[in-house]
Amino acid sequence: NKCGSEIGYNITISADTPSLSNKVISEKVKTSYNECKSSENNIKINYPSTWTKTFDNSKPPVRAIIFMPPKGDPANLVITVDDSVGNITLDANNENFISAMRKGLPDFKLIESTPSTLSGFAAHQLILSERKTKRLIVSTIKNNVLYSIMYVADHDIYFRHLSVAKQMISSFEILN
Predict the structure, then answer these.
(1) Nearest Cα to Cα of residue 46 among 176, 140, 164
(2) Does the N-terminal peptide bond of residue 106 adopt cis geometry, omega within 30 degrees of 0?
């Protein structure tokens, strides 16, 4: 309801085709992106026009925007904005999150934990796995507000939407 302007991109998609002796075929596909600008959350992001979006403000003070790919794939990208974190540092936030995941999920595995950037601000990227899903999480804190983007998908389709999730994350902006 606050998004909708189209942004066009050309993306090269390569596919292995066993019937052509494992040669790689490339073709140009025009993918249309919409811009989602949420003044309430002070953010902007581009997302594929074929994906659906939902606003979820049911767990104050955390507000979320959920993006889901077509075809009913068990995957989504969730942006959360939490203005209740106070003076916590990004490192402390990551330690608390990882600790909570270890306690709550006995099969939790931390695959990667690396410094990153999000909307031009120092951020942290986590890649983790648990029984059924794999997650990519990028978080930053600006003016005592925690901004997190999490791409989550079942293990068997995690890579299917990973490049789109990364494009979405790179387009993310914190406004003002």
Answers:
(1) 164
(2) no
In this structure, the chain runs to a length of 176
The single residue listed with the structure tokens 């904005």 is 81
CA angle at 152 for the pair 59 and 95, rounded to the nearest 5°:
70
What is the DSSP code (8-state) at residue 132?
S
Of 79, 59, 69, 64, which is closest to residue 153 (Cα–Cα)?
69
Q: What is the pLDDT along the chain (176 residues), one digit of tens a residue?
A: 345 544 544 444 444 444 444 444 444 556 799 999 999 999 999 999 999 999 998 998 899 999 999 988 899 999 999 999 999 999 999 999 999 999 998 899 999 999 999 999 999 999 999 999 999 999 999 999 999 999 999 999 999 999 999 999 999 999 98
CB-based contact 39:47 (threshold 8 Å): no
Cα dihedral 168, 134, 120, 140, rounded to 10, equals: 130
Of the candidates 93, 70, 77, 108, which has an alpha carbon nearest to the alpha carbon of residue 146?
93
Measured from the Cβ of residue 26, the count of other Cβ atoms closer than 10 Å reads 9
DSSP conformation letters of 113-162: EEEEEETTEEEEEEEEE-SSEEEEEEEEEETTEEEEEEEEEEGGGGGGTH
